[in-house]
Amino acid sequence: MLDRIPLEAFRVFDAACRFMNFSRAGRELNITQAAVSHRIKGLEDQLGVPLFTRRGRNLALTAAGERLFQRVRATLEYLEESLEPFRGGAPEIISIAASGSVSHLWLGEHLRAFSIENPSVSVRLLTTDSPSELASETNDLVILYSTGEHPRWDLGLLMKETLVPVASPTYLEARGLAAASLTADDIAGLDLIDYERFNAHWVSFRQWFNRIPHPPKRRIVNPRFSFTTYFMAIDAAVRGDGIALGSIGLITQHLQQGRLVAVGRDRVETGFGYYLGMPRYRTVSAEAMKLHQRLLATEG
């Protein structure tokens, strides 16, 4: 049906709805009142429903007209917004993609600082755990969980992945526990907070216990809490619900500000890390380069 309706008819319909007056709509569009009426009549004929009720000079939308107006207005607003980057004087927009845990726990604060330093630059953050969306070359920059190699992205290390159990001081104090003295057996018997492994390379508590030099002798039971996202597991640990597996680079702020403390003495380096990527076969803007350099300067 759309191929039989001139797109101009929707602009005319939108103006008529906003003004509820064909003459004023025509003045905005630089066409005559008769042209507006003709466009509206043609649109009604194509759709097979009346869009306006006419009582003398007064107009009102029918139920069908109201539904169409809401959709046309939303579509035109979306198109208007989409054209902003192509207008002269429009702010530069940098698109960066990262997983939910990286966005929530680490990247957000760095983007805020960059925005304050560069008020004329806009940053669009795509938060997704989908590998295909993260690696889409429509993004200017991307943060990938990787060993440092990718066929389409040049990667620079932001932080290695080092995993250690963490808990809030209030959780430990309430149970009379000294964080540094806890053994793997002690930790395995506490309230473990885990997350679902959507990536085969992610390490949760069961894999972590198997990788430390002296795994616990006790049978590892199911975690007390299990979340679909890693950052929700960390938030639960901050609230004092139990012990989570902390990726040190991602939770540095929580550790520095005392909201979380490392538990026990075992650490596991997984061989993976978080890497900042720049497209290998496309040149990015000077502003994106500036953000790239700033994030790499925070390497931990």
TrEMBL record:
Keyword hit for Repeat:
no
Annotated HTH lysR-type domain residues: 5-62
Q: Could you tell me which Pfam families the record lists for this protein?
A: HTH_1, LysR_substrate
Which Gene Ontology molecular-function terms are recorded?
DNA-binding transcription factor activity; sequence-specific DNA binding
| Domain of life the protein comes from | Bacteria
Q: A Gene Ontology biological process annotation?
A: DNA-templated transcription
Keywords in UniProt for this one?
A: DNA-binding, Transcription, Transcription regulation
Stated family: Belongs to the LysR transcriptional regulatory family.
Protein name stated in the entry: Transcriptional regulator
